[in-house]
Amino acid sequence: MQRGNGNPDRTGVADADQRLVLAMGRSGMVRAEFFFPPPLAAMISVSPPAPLAAPAPPATGGPVLPRDCTFAESDWRALLPFWYPVAFSHEVADAPFAARLLDERIVLYRTSNGGVSAARDLCLHRGAPLSMGTVEGDVLRCKYHGFCYDSTGKCTLIPAHPGAAIPPKLHLKTYPVREAYGLVWCTLGDGSAPFPRFEAWDDPDYLQVLPDAVDIRAAAGRQMEGFLDVSHFAFVHTGTFGESTNPVVPSYPVTPTENGFVADYVSTVSNYPTHLKHLNPPGFEWRRLFEVFLPFTARLTVFFPNDGQLHILNAVCPISARRSRVFVPICRNFDKDAPLQATLDFNHQVFEEDKEVVEQQYPEDLPIDLHDEVHIRADRSSIVYRQQLGALGLGRGYTT
């Protein structure tokens, strides 16, 4: 590729024969496409990014950014429409529960029919957090002056003036909410965005496990990319399942989908814990199927011997630009009678190993511009992930 000055342009991809072609789209966004001349084309299988079914961006004058928002405005608006987990279902019980999503303070509470409602965590009278209040039937009552709001956000009672007309302005901002996979999900948009799929959670042939959430002082995109990465097993996860003597990453295909992409990775790296590696059948090839639901949810299916399957949902709540809460529902169709504590401990250790590295990555925000970091052939998932985040409208430096 030649620039205007006549000098050849080298990208950050660590293969001399690999070229990155940049094109300016009609929207003004730079589109990056990788071309792999032979023999690299036979070694790397990355399908061109498909058009994504991203919700339309909000019009000018749409939702107001939260106070002290840590995201660039364009990034915040690009992320706003999607569904994110904000709490465990069991956390939303008799009392209001305070959550935070994209820097927005949210109060969750259960009504008399068992459903969950979500609203901005702010009483419109004197600014007290409604999560400090109480739930009385279908009503959320503010702790400060007792103002009551129903599940639509409408104020139904001002205790100091029970017979007075209630100003229409006393109406909370509410958000779409749904429960799935043992989690409460919320969106700051209109709820029309695609919802992540995790069918095994409702399959009676599977055991469902819900580990504790993992709180990470890192950007959601960095955590997600680490979950999708397959070349760090031999270095980061040697205390759990990684094999220091098996660092080679075979070629694997990445196929864009309507709402993300699928990466189908097959290797000889066993998923058994280190002390159980002897159970690995000789020559067995381990398949790990990653399915990404943009922007911050991915499902991993690990195929075990004897038709065993382990499903892991990596669902990230972007609390702020550099604080994330990771929920990890797990399902498996084997060892269903085995004690759960060993599974919980193993899962915790794997995510702690990742957390140690992800929290120290710099720059803290995931670089969307593919020139900013060096890429190798094993990074094909990462490359497509960054391209697709850019297609959603995230900035070249993503919140920097």
Fold and architecture overview:
- By secondary structure, the chain is an alpha+beta fold.
- The protein folds into two domains: 1-80 and 196-400, Naphthalene 1,2-dioxygenase Alpha Subunit, Chain A, domain 1 (Alpha-Beta Complex), CATH 3.90.380; 84-186, Rieske [2Fe-2S] iron-sulphur domain (Rieske Iron-sulfur Protein), CATH 2.102.10.10.
- The protein is 14% helix and 28% strand.
- It has helices at residues 40-43, 73-79, 220-228, 233-236, 341-358, 380-392; strands at 19-24, 30-35, 45-46, 84-88, 97-101, 104-110, 116-120, 134-136, 139-141, 148-149, 155-157, 174-175, 177-180, 183-186, 207-209, 214-216, 253-257, 260-267, 286-293, 297-303, 309-320, 323-327, 330-332.
- Strands 3, 15, 16, 17, 18, 19, 20, 21, 22 and 23 form a ten-stranded mixed β-sheet that branches. A four-stranded antiparallel β-sheet has the order 5-6-7-12, with no helix packed on it. A four-stranded antiparallel β-sheet has the order 8-9-10-11, with no helix packed on it.
- A hairpin with a 2-residue loop joins strand 21 (309-320) and strand 22.
SSE topology:
Layout: E1 19-24, E2 30-35, H1 40-43, E3 45-46, H2 73-79, E4 84-88, E5 97-101, E6 104-110, E7 116-120, E8 134-136, E9 139-141, E10 148-149, E11 155-157, E12 174-175, E13 177-180, E14 183-186, E15 207-209, E16 214-216, H3 220-228, H4 233-236, E17 253-257, E18 260-267, E19 286-293, E20 297-303, E21 309-320, E22 323-327, E23 330-332, H5 341-358, H6 380-392
Parallel strand pairs: 3-17
Antiparallel strand pairs: 1-2, 4-14, 5-6, 6-7, 7-12, 8-9, 9-10, 10-11, 13-14, 15-23, 16-22, 17-18, 18-19, 19-20, 20-21, 21-22, 21-23
